[in-house]
Amino acid sequence: MTSPLIARLGALPPRQFHLLGAAIMLAVAALLWSALLRAPMAQWRQAQTERARLAALPNDARPLDRRYVELNAHVRALEAGLGMSADAGSADRRQLELIGMVNRSAQAHGVRVLGAAPTPARVVASFNEMAFEVSAAGSYQQVADWLADLERAAPNLAVAQLELSHNPVSETRDIKLRIAAYFPQEATR
After folding, report:
1. What are phi and psi for residue 128, nearest 5 degrees?
2. Is residue 58 a contact partner of residue 112, using CB atoms and an 8 Å limit?
């Protein structure tokens, strides 16, 4: 009651049997390599390349600060040409100034700001809340020093939401936070 395949394998000379076994083991090893190790190695190489690219990026926001000053002057000139009051865009201007202050503070503590986006303003109690979401990267100590500096620099700022995660590629912490600034309702009109 043996199967014909087992009977044929049993009839093979030992040398051919061992060669067949070695060929099967090589085929299984090649299959495991391509299925289990090739994709993670490609991902690792891609992560290394991305890490090198991020390390080469400038960590200096001075060109952005200069551009902000230029754009601010241009907006004021346009407002004057259109006959708009200086207060028409004061809330947006204040929010941009806060984002600039947060960015400069982050740079001073070695935290790399990756992006900042304003969120819609809303009224909370008798205050107007101006909030923005910030994405940044840095070490635990850098982030702690940065947030402490923000609290000292602007007492009307509050971290409304904080999400901290480990970035295995750059060995830093990725930070996503929502910073809110509170102003009396009269101050933002």
Report:
1. -90, 130
2. no
**Tokens linked to 141:** 């100590």
Measuring CA to CA, how many Å separate 64 from each of 91, 92, 118? 20, 17, 17
Residues 184 and 128: their CA atoms lie apart, in Å, by 6
Residues in the chain: 189
Please state, in angstroms and rounded to a whole number, the distance separating the CA atoms of residues 23 and 10: 17
Mapping DSSP to helix (H, G, I), strand (E, B) and coil, where does residue 124 land?
strand
Q: Using alpha carbons only, what angle is made at residue 87 by residues 83 and 92, rounded to the nearest 5 degrees? A: 115
For the whole prediction, is pTM greater than 0.85? no
Q: Which residue has the tokens 């049993």?
A: 10
Q: What is the pLDDT of residues 77-115, one digit of tens each?
A: 665 665 545 554 566 677 778 888 888 889 999 998 888
Question: Which tens digits make up the pLDDT trace of 142-189?
Answer: 989 998 888 888 778 888 899 988 888 877 888 899 988 887 776 444
Give the distance, in angstroms, between the CA of residue 137 and the centroid of all CA atoms in the same chain: 7
Tokens matching residue 79: 């407002």
**CA gap 113, 138 in Å, rounded:** 9
